[in-house]
Design a protein that fits this description.
The modification N6-(pyridoxal phosphate)lysine is found at residue 345. The protein has 390 residues and is of the alpha/beta class. It has helices at residues 22-25, 28-33, 39-45, 50-62, 69-72, 83-88, 158-166, 186-197, 211-214, 221-230, 247-258, 277-289, 313-323; strands at 117-121, 124-128, 173-177, 204-208, 233-237, 263-269, 293-299, 334-339, 344-347, 353-356, 360-364, 370-374. 28% of the residues lie in helices and 16% in strands. The longest helix has 13 residues, at 50-62. It starts with 21 loop residues before the first helix and ends in a 16-residue tail after the last strand. The mean pLDDT is 94. The structure holds iron/sulfur cluster.
Length: 390
């Protein structure tokens, strides 16, 4: 169902944790220490469905349960289908594995020359610097290693990773991801960024993080100073539903922007969360208000136990079609499928072109009306008099 909440309403405050001093609430370490991680803790705050109880029992073998108090406040505890709830509270569906699904759906492990580093494209590397996150998304592409619930034994090797990048001059772009890189201490992060910045051939550093959404308190002035010092650092945040756009997230994005960090958003198309055009339109508008450019909309990767989130690609195309021409161009993300097995991101777009000949392109606009763009240049009349005739 489309999300229709008042467009001017942005959740703010401490919600269920009114009794906690503001100094604690605004401390990211307090938020981490007070995460909800067990069935008992969850049941203190809400009545769970059988489906959820069974999912939680299985989570310890797949991907741990953890929800920050900040994010928990966004859950509608009276609605089992709440789009925030679906993202972080496990369901029994996680234990059902389909034939099409894979543990390492993007084939990252086979392109990993040192632990924690993936080098698939010639000019860029993915540097997985931790297996921890502030909260765990039930559809996570890296659930094989994130939270280490599957005994994956993930141990990123910073020094080996840095040396690998130093000795590969073709690497111009480094993406720090994980897990969530912003869970590292300021000291560790500064060390990593300073080492990367010192490598002459590394032109572009970016971070993939859901911390601003789960734990906006982590975006401290001290962290922003580090980004200023080693910038430009680009960042992709990860918001799937407009309810996640809180006043605290908006303020965190503002701090990052003012520190010179360009912000993009990556959403995953998820059944029951954002698989309708109205919700997506509200989301992309909120992102722009927060200074965040909608960047990618991902078709969900084929991860094991993820089929209950899977949306038909035709639905995704319908959503993009409903955005294009109907809202600001900046608001429209690129819909992509990350090719299973490691073929990279492939853009998929609604088909506007009817035909292309040597003479013309025939296409439809956003309203379904047909237009023609000629490819020929046919002189009709001379409009500029030549010098000899004057
Ligand atoms: S924050 Fe990212 S890495 Fe962590 S669980 Fe969510 S999707 Fe996975």
């Amino acid at each position: 169902m489309a999300y229709t909440e008042d467009r001017a309403a942005w959740f703010e405050g401490q919600g269920l944790w009114q009794h906690v001093p503001a100094s604690d609430w605004n401390d990211w370490v307090w938020q981490l220490k007070n995460r909800i991680t067990t069935l008992d803790e969850l049941e203190k705050y809400m009545v769970l469905t059988q489906d959820e109880r069974r999912g939680i029992a299985f989570a310890g073998h797949k991907l741990s349960l953890a929800i920050t108090p900040h994010f928990f406040n966004l859950i509608d505890r009276n609605n089992p289908n709440c789009p925030v709830r679906l993202q972080v509270i496990p369901r029994e569906g996680e234990s059902i594995i389909s034939r099409e699904e894979m543990l390492d759906s993007l084939g990252e492990d086979e392109h990993s020359p040192v632990p924690g580093l993936v080098h698939r494209y010639p000019d860029r590397v993915l540097f997985l610097v931790t297996d921890r996150c502030a909260s765990y998304c039930r559809y996570c592409t890296r659930s094989r290693l994130v939270s280490n619930a599957q005994d994956y034994n993930f141990h990123p090797e910073y020094e080996q990773g840095l040396r690998y990048i130093e000795s590969h001059p073709e690497v111009r772009d480094v993406l720090l991801s994980g897990g969530d890189p912003l869970l590292l201490s300021d000291k560790k992060l500064e060390h990593l960024l300073s080492r990367l910045r010192a490598i002459k051939h590394v032109e572009f550093i970016r971070i993939g993080s859901r911390i601003p959404v789960f734990l906006p308190q982590r975006i401290t002035p001290a962290l922003c100073d580090i980004f200023k010092k080693y910038g430009p650092i680009w960042m992709s945040i990860h918001v799937n539903h407009p309810k996640e756009c809180t006043a605290d997230l908006r303020a965190a994005c503002e701090r990052l922007s003012f520190a010179g960090v360009p912000l993009g958003n990556q959403s995953v198309l998820l059944r029951g969360v954002n698989d309708d055009a109205g919700t997506m339109k509200t989301l992309v508008h909120r992102l722009l208000q927060m200074r965040v450019r909608p960047y990618y909309l991902y078709q969900m990767d084929l991860i094991t136990g993820g089929s209950h989130f899977k949306v038909d690609v035709r639905k995704g195309l319908e959503i993009i079609h409903a955005l294009r021409g109907h809202t600001t161009g900046y608001a429209i993300p690129q819909y992509v499928i990350d090719a299973p097995g490691g073929g990279g991101k492939v853009p998929i777009n609604p088909d506007y072109i009817e035909k292309i000949t040597d003479e013309e392109v025939v296409f439809k606009n956003y309203e379904g009306q047909t237009y023609r763009y000629p490819l020929t240049n046919t002189p009709v009349t001379r409009t500029i008099k030549s010098a000899s005739t004057t």
